[in-house]
TrEMBL record, chains A, B:
Residues 31-107 form the RNA 2-O ribose methyltransferase substrate binding domain. It comes from Sphingomonas donggukensis. CDD domains: SpoU-like_rRNA-MTase (cd18095). One of its GO terms (molecular function) is methyltransferase activity. The lineage of its organism: Bacteria, Pseudomonadati, Pseudomonadota, Alphaproteobacteria, Sphingomonadales. The keyword Cytoplasm does not apply. It comes from the Bacteria. Keywords: Methyltransferase, Transferase. This is RNA methyltransferase. GO terms for biological process: methylation.
Length: 265, 265
């Protein structure tokens, strides 16, 4: 275990760069922060290559467990101070730990669709907070995973990891083009369900088949026509007010919980 | 109509300060941005005192409608450029319009609870994005309004207004202490419903009475025990994964849509 307290330390500088997408891609590494999320990761068997922690927090059992597990797995635990944690995190109050993790995705081809009754699919999601929140919901509804289509925001961004509250480490995430996904989907059973404004089918009255693949479209534009045309079922959520759409993570959750309840009978 | 293209202009500086809570409170004014949100506001009868717009966008009918309506109501429409709009908004791509509005809240005492079957209530909400998203959901489910309890984040923050997608202008918002709310609630009919981990009552199987007041607790801690004890009904949303909670705006929406569906039969 070593200690770093200088802003100018090269490792601090290199770690801070992982807040930037280009550097994450080049390094294949990302940042996660906060005791709750890092503990969730540890319990899922994911340990950081580098763990920064605040020494005054070492008496807390969960921090100790992270330090011990990180070092046992060949990673490095580094004592530092709250100022450097803030610099790494970009937050005033970053908590007591930040970890550097290797990026991981699940190849679409290795997904076993029979493993779950519900899968979430999102296309061209732009907001990292929405992506993280959808991951958190995926965990809660017991979804098999989240499949990101086309040009989605990076699931390893600091904001997405934070909003996922650790679900990034527990919910399989795959990335594919629409065409790759469509071919894979049609190679086996699965009902593709999309939200649409152009249908009379209320989401509470529709019939869902297992496994259900729930498709969420881009925040501003929804899904393009050719994706809607491919859906086996288009449903609408009632909108009783002035606006014509819900937040994408909210719409996904309302749909996901409906499908879950229906599958559970 | 006048034109401002200098960053150093005092009105630009004063307007930019409204991104800060203290200055909003002192001025009683807040910022909203983007054609969609300002148009939603206009249609709800809310016009800005000052409208900043980009001249290249004046040929767009919705911008023109805003300029005309603002001036007709005695407000000022100011031509500016994209750089100044960015500076006012803090975003790289702020759209074509930003408005300065007078703050408005609905006094709790003037709420007519019979006007809607569902009301949303949130206590100590910390995240402005969650607050705005809950407002957007409140609009969608036809809720009578949102009641903010105790120390909630400012509904007039730039992030909350943005996440509300205009619902801030269409959904009544009240602010009260827990004790003020409790006294008001018990002065008439109303079922107070809270989410809890400490109940076996599934939210899909519970009985909801109208008007339903749906209480969302603080993001990190949930609601305190004395609020849970005051609830007429505590329900749980199933959590099938590793985590024990949903995002606060997601949980509110899942509950709100369940209550809506049950009220509609």
């Amino acid at each position: 275990m070593r200690s770093i307290t200088a802003f100018s330390n090269p490792l601090v500088k290199a770690t801070r760069l992982l807040r930037d997408k280009k550097h994450r891609r080049d390094a294949g590494r990302f940042l996660a922060e906060g005791l709750r999320i890092l503990t969730e990761a540890r319990e899922a068997g994911r340990l950081p290559e580098t763990l920064f922690f605040v020494p005054s927090a070492t008496d807390r059992p969960l921090v100790n467990a992270l330090v011990t597990a990180t070092e046992a797995a060949g990673g490095e635990a580094i004592e530092t101070n709250a100022d450097i944690l803030s610099k790494l995190s970009g937050k005033d109050n970053p908590g007591s730990v930040i970890g550097v993790y290797e990026e991981f995705l699940t190849p679409l081809a290795s997904i076993d669709r029979a493993a779950a009754q519900l899968w979430l699919v999102a296309e061209r999601l732009r907001d990292p907070g929405n992506l993280g929140t959808i991951l958190r919901t995926a965990d809660a509804v017991g979804a098999g995973g989240l499949i990101l289509l086309d040009d989605c925001v990076d699931p390893f961004s600091v904001e997405a990891v934070r909003a996922s509250m650790g679900a990034l480490f527990t919910v399989p995430v795959a990335r594919a083009t629409w065409e790759e996904f469509r071919m894979w989907l049609r190679s086996g059973p699965g009902q593709l369900v999309g939200l649409s404004l152009d249908t009379d089918a209320d989401y509470r009255a529709a019939d869902y088949a297992s496994p259900t693949f729930l498709l969420t479209g881009n925040e501003a534009q929804g899904m393009p026509d050719h994706m809607a045309a491919e859906c086996d079922l288009l449903v609408k959520i009632p909108m009783l007010g002035k606006a014509d759409s819900l937040n994408a993570a909210v719409a996904t959750a309302v749909m996901a919980y409906e499908v879950l309840a229906r599958h559970r009978g």
